[in-house]
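Hi W., the adenosine-5'-triphosphate complex you wanted:
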Amino acid sequence: MKLGIFGGTFDPVHIGHLILAEAVREACVLDEVRFLPAYSPPHKQSREISPGKQRVDMLEFATAGFPEFVVDQRELKRQGTSYTVDTLAELKQEFPDAELHFLMGADSLIDLPTWREPQRIAELAKIIAVNRNNSSREDLEQVVKQLPVAVQAAITIVDIPEIAVSASDLRSRISENRSIRFLTPRPVERYIQEQSLYQSS
Ligand code: ATP
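Structure:
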């Protein structure tokens, strides 16, 4: 079984996440993509993050009806800082025969050397890096070349349709009373309205 692991804050989930997951699922022939909302992402300590329950609800709405997309709450249940290496080690124990594929955008790949135990991450999973913010394949290859050789070997670059959308954009649009129509699935948009999320930036 080929398992996609897609970690993030998902505050909120948006079409950039969904198109990434679908494009990689198809390109890598994954049986399943697991969306793992972080409890406390090590790289985003500066901002107040929405409660896990709301981020999970939005992910459930976004992935409903797509059986290959699964919301996995293990990082929320584990609490504490959400280190990817711990999550992958847990998944490897739970699915010893699965081939793990860890999905990440170009911006996250650049940060990878600062993550906890990048080498061990590369031992536990294949790393699937996708373009973001107009990074070309050549840009990504340059980033890969800066990484330790053992990590480089685990990386595959997958080209996806460029979607210039971020969760920060959605949050600031909402706080400015601007439209987020089509930037996230309709049920997520409705939930954000009902729960009055992101009203102030
Ligand atoms: P924020 O704007 O709050 O920083 P974000 O939109 O970057 O959030 P995250 O939940 O932090 O979303 O992202 C999780 C993963 O998805 C990261 O690996 C990130 O690179 C990737 N990602 C998010 N949006 C896109 C996008 N539009 N294109 C490609 N990759 C993306």
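The chain has a mean pLDDT of 95.

W.
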